[in-house]
Design brief:
By secondary structure, this protein is of the alpha+beta class. It folds into two domains: 112 residues, Orthogonal Bundle (DNA polymerase, domain 1), CATH 1.10.150.20; 87 residues, Cytidine Deaminase, domain 2 (3-Layer(aba) Sandwich). Helix content is 47%, strand content 13%. The chain has ten helices and four strands. The radius of gyration is 22 Å and the shape is elongated. The N terminus is likely disordered.
Length: 219
């Protein structure tokens, strides 16, 4: 259990101090300015849907729950300025997230929980579909999963004869600038899964947000 003295940013960002009973009788307490903004943003999301909100406002909505007593607009904009897109914010490592003002250990961990949920949903959307007919979706999925990995990964998407995804696996993890690839292991695993085509995915930690995709032809 966290002690009262823990430097948790969710308690660090607080509303205006609560006045004493005597002071409260003398003057009304003004609500923080961001409360009305939160209500308006929720109403717009409910009425117009997520497509009507830019990335920073959608991120704001998420941060409302993670940082309940603060103006989250500056935090959302700072995250996007640092990482680029909503997906890349969620894909960023905890250590890098905490380098953004307003994001501490608790909120960074909460964002990674949301990221894990989003990745599982994205995998479910891709799984069983013709992934090559939605290359943009596939690239976005890979970027969210790998863009800010600190070590090189060699990932394989195994496809069936209809180009539907059978499995998505990390075949090798290497160092910051090197990962070994063994063609024999790739072929062996493809045969085990009865895959007729594969997509090879390789990230480049030394070049942020750099991912290479190669499509191996059908057998």
């Amino acid at each position: 259990m966290e002690s009262a003295g823990d430097d948790d940013e969710r308690s660090f960002f607080s509303e205006v101090p609560v006045p004493s009973v005597a002071n409260a009788r003398l003057a009304p307490v003004e609500k923080p300015h961001y409360l009305g903004h939160r209500d308006r943003l929720r109403d717009r999301f409910a009425s117009a849907g997520p497509g009507a909100l830019p990335d920073y406002e959608l991120l704001e909505l998420l941060l409302f729950r993670l940082i309940p007593r603060a103006d989250t607009k500056p935090v959302a904009k700072a995250l996007l300025a640092r990482f680029g897109t909503f997906a890349e914010v969620l894909g960023a490592p905890i250590a890098l997230l905490q380098e953004v003002k307003g994001i501490g250990p608790a909120v960074a961990l909460d964002l990674k929980v949301v990221a894990a949920t989003a990745q599982r949903m994205a995998h479910g959307e891709v799984h069983g579909r013709e992934v090559l007919s939605s290359w943009t979706q596939l690239l976005a999925y890979c970027r969210a999963a790998m863009a800010f990995e600190t070590r090189e990964q060699f990932r394989i998407l195994f496809l069936d004869k209809k180009n539907a995804l059978i499995a998505d696996e990390v075949q090798q993890t290497g160092t910051v600038d090197h990962t070994p690839v063994y063609p024999r292991e790739v072929v062996k695993r493809a045969l085990e899964l009865s895959a007729t085509a594969i997509i090879l995915v390789h990230n480049h930690p030394t070049q942020p947000i750099s991912i290479t995709l190669d499509h191996a032809p059908n057998r």
